Amino acid sequence: MPFFGRDRTLFKLFGLPIKANISWLFLVALIMFSLAEGWFPDQFRHAGVRADQSVYWALALVGTVALFVSLIIHEMCHSLVARSTGMPVAGITLFIFGGVSQLEDEPPTAGTEFFMAIVGPLASALIGAAMFGLYLFGQRAHWGIGAQALVLYLAVINGIMAAFNSLPAFPLDGGRVLRSIVWGITGDLQIATQVAVTIGSGLGFLLIFVGLGMMFMVTGGFIPGLWLLVIGFFVRQAALSNLQMVQMREYLEGETVRRFMTTDVVTVHRDLNLQRFVDELVFHHRFSYYPVVDEDGRLIGVVSARGPRGVDQHEWGVTSVGDVMKTVDESMTIGPDDDAVEALGSLRRREESRLVVVEDGRPIGIVSLRDLLGFLALKIDLEPRRISYRA
Ligand SMILES: [Zn+2]
Questions:
Q1: 294-338: per-residue pLDDT in tens?
Q2: Where residue 2 falls among pLDDT bands split at 50, 70, 90?
Q3: d(CA 90, CA 18)
Q4: Which of 122, 226, 298, 370 is most buried (CB neighbours < 10 A)?
Q5: Interval between CA 211 and ligand 1 midpoint (Å)
């Protein structure tokens, strides 16, 4: 989730990291608050019972944890099916709109995508049904109001999760199911993606309009309306960026990194001091990014033109580039004869804008997302053999 900052790993499950980014805390707070101040007091009032505020907050805490357990089960189903078919899965990320499984590739077949997508809403529907069963049982067994309200909440929220995710708005699960069906019929992933994205984007618009309507025309509808509006924007944005990725893969297939890399690269020795780096390289070449090498010319890091900014200017003469560089690991580099699709996947996965192209340990070029996108734009203009979706 590049818009929301870096993800942190909370724990691992079946070898998959469960990550969260800072925006998730907002969701946690919102759910806790709406349960403690809304749902539980309301349920107690309906039953003609009053309870202490601390009881509502304790129930809200349990409800919030149970909600995220349900959500992780939903995502885990996607991830485990994906992994069982050989697709690499980077993990599950929790963020402001819930959870997302980070698949590192498109599914290999329409059947895989269908199965992978449908297990999520299915899991939520099953949990919801089980919780509703428990609620009915609890009523007959005269459970306490708190326990009844808790299982009823879990039944409702899992039902909503199943229903919302089944909307045929790509990249929601329902949209993926739709795409897999069109893909299965036409045998063409790109056309299937275009159909699913067009519908997804339209549904995104609909959510935005419904959200706006609720915000200004329904009493008490401002917050839920705003929520729908934001989700609508998010669905549209996600649909379009996904389409772009599928198009890029299609056009880049079989091309090597060498074709796209810039060989116009200035490397910096790690012992160079920042003063000379700025005077002799940054102001002279005006690149934004410089590979850093050791005595043997081997790549050990990268430094951006703004790298020295973090160091007081008086210290520039005695601070070396090696002190401010970002060390590179294997995943930040790529070979010149590697597939461009692989470079794209790597850029996307790491949320980086550039990779250093390395041959025999030495930097020979840079490949950037911008270059790949530029190539895509040209290719679509010059070879309009496919319908391209314009938003
Ligand atoms: Zn899902």
A1: 888 888 888 888 888 888 888 888 888 888 888 887 778 888 888
A2: very low
A3: 9
A4: 122
A5: 22
Q: How does pLDDT run across 167-204, given as a tens digit for each residue?
A: 888 878 999 999 999 999 998 888 888 888 888 888 88
Q: How far does residue 179's CA lie from ligand 1's centre (Å)? A: 14
Closest by Cα among 389, 87, 88, 383 to 244: 389
Provide the token pair at 149.
């309200």
CA of 245 to the centre of ligand 1 (A): 20
The alpha carbon dihedral of 173, 235, 29, 40 has a sign of negative
Distance from the alpha carbon of residue 348 to the mean position of ligand 1, in angstroms: 20
C-alpha of residue 71 to centroid of ligand 1, in Å: 9
**DSSP-assigned beta bridge partners for residue 373:** none
CA of 175 to the centre of ligand 1 (A): 10
The model carries a pTM of 0.69
Task: Name the DSSP class of 175.
Answer: H
Mean pLDDT along residues 130-134:
97
CA diameter of the chain: 81
